[in-house]
């Protein structure tokens, strides 16, 4: 470096909150695969950081696993996807996109919680502070679905708000029963929901 070159500045450090988010995103697929048996060394390697950095961001592995559960349960991602569904599409296509987004969201929740449960981890008592409020998430998802029914309000047998609640219930029931009925497709479910079961 020449003497007249300006001194190099170090890149600004990552905030603690951003570092935690980055570690959690790297940890999620590992938690879904290994459950509580995942090691902080595996997580650090996936995140491209040293293991000591994990413990500067989280008190211990349990706190990190709690943060992974909270992230899996967050509805932000699915709400963004629902909001991006084009309203000028036919109703069946709108609902198929919505169902696909919701199924992916519930699959992620199931894989993380299922892996933790299968590996012997139980709740430590009070839920983590950052755990999303289920009632608020449910209401926000129902409102996002209501918007997808709204363009067809005049053609619907029930108000969009009621149909959104029914569709949401159907999606939750489908997620619980998916293992027992792997043949059911999103297109089939949406078609029956929109057109009924009669010929």
TrEMBL record:
Listed SUPFAM superfamilies: Homeodomain-like (SSF46689)
Pfam families: TetR_N
Residues annotated as domain HTH tetR-type: 17-76
Gene3D superfamilies: Tetracycline Repressor, domain 2
Sorted UniProt keywords: DNA-binding, Transcription, Transcription regulation
GO molecular function, one term: transcription cis-regulatory region binding
Portion annotated as DNA-binding: 39-58
Listed name of the protein: AcrR family transcriptional regulator
């Amino acid at each position: 470096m020449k003497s007249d070159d300006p001194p190099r500045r170090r890149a600004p450090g990552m905030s603690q909150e951003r570092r935690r988010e980055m570690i959690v995103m790297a940890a999620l697929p590992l938690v879904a695969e290994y459950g509580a048996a995942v090691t902080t060394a595996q997580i650090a390697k996936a995140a491209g950081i040293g293991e000591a950095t994990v413990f500067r961001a989280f008190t211990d592995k349990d706190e990190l696993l709690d943060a992974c559960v909270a992230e899996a349960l967050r509805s932000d991602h699915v709400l963004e996807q629902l909001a991006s569904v084009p309203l000028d599409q036919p109703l069946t296509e709108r609902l198929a996109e919505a169902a696909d987004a919701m199924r992916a969201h519930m699959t992620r929740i199931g894989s993380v919680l299922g892996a933790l449960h299968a590996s012997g981890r139980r709740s430590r008592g009070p839920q983590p502070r950052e755990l999303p409020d289920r009632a608020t998430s449910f209401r926000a998802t129902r409102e996002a679905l209501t918007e997808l029914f709204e363009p067809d309000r005049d053609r619907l047998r029930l108000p969009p708000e009621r149909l959104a609640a029914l569709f949401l219930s159907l999606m939750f029931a489908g997620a619980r029963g998916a293992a027992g009925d792997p043949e059911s497709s999103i297109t089939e479910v949406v078609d029956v929901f929109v057109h009924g079961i009669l010929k």
